[in-house]
Design goal:
Layout: H1 3-6, H2 12-17, H3 24-28, H4 36-50, H5 59-76, H6 79-96, H7 111-129, H8 150-162
Helix pairs in contact: 4-5
InterPro entries: Chaperone_stress_response, DnaJ_domain, J_dom_sf
Domain J: 23-93
Protein name: DnaJ-like protein subfamily C member 21
């Protein structure tokens, strides 16, 4: 694990309470398969665009954005940091989906929508990762939606999940 990511500011709780607004790859406008040279070129371009000396009308915002780009470059140009970032992106993306402001609706951004999509994805990954003979794949029941009955959907989900 890289030094920056293992610091107390970047561990799970602190990271979740102040999530990065934009992914580092997006900040530098490079793909996840970018080479070191691609990252360096993109950093130089963005640094020139966002440098506070070139944005005198909004120095405070330019300073903040420039610092974000510098951090993105520091992480993506360090092989160990980049590997850690890539391996944990999905986890932190998932954690950021859960917060107190989520409504208890079936919408994709609501509690039931988020949890259902998450468990559906986990079930798909479990089945894909397993080496099951045809017909032996486990049957993962759906998490369901807000109006589902306890007896026919919820109980079955929790019984299978508890095993």
């Amino acid at each position: 694990m890289g030094a920056q990511q293992s610091s107390s500011q970047q561990d799970g709780e602190a990271y979740n309470s102040q999530p990065r607004k934009t992914c580092y790859y997006e900040l530098l406008a490079v793909g996840r398969d970018a080479t070191d040279d691609d990252i360096k070129r993109a950093y130089r371009k963005r640094a020139l665009e966002l440098h506070p000396d070139r944005n005198l009308k909004d120095v405070e915002n330019a300073t903040r954005r420039f610092a974000e780009v510098q951090t993105a470059y520091e992480v993506l140009s360090d092989p160990q940091e980049r590997t850690w970032l890539t391996s944990t992106e999905d986890i932190f993306s998932l954690i950021r989906r859960f917060n107190a402001s989520v409504l208890f609706t079936d919408d994709p951004s609501g509690f039931f929508g988020i949890v259902k999509a998450t468990f559906d994805q986990l079930a798909d990954e479990e089945i894909a990762a397993g080496e099951y003979a045809p017909g032996d794949a486990p049957d993962y029941p759906s998490f369901g939606i807000s109006s589902d009955s306890y007896e026919f959907v919820v109980k079955r989900f929790y019984n299978v999940s508890a095993d």
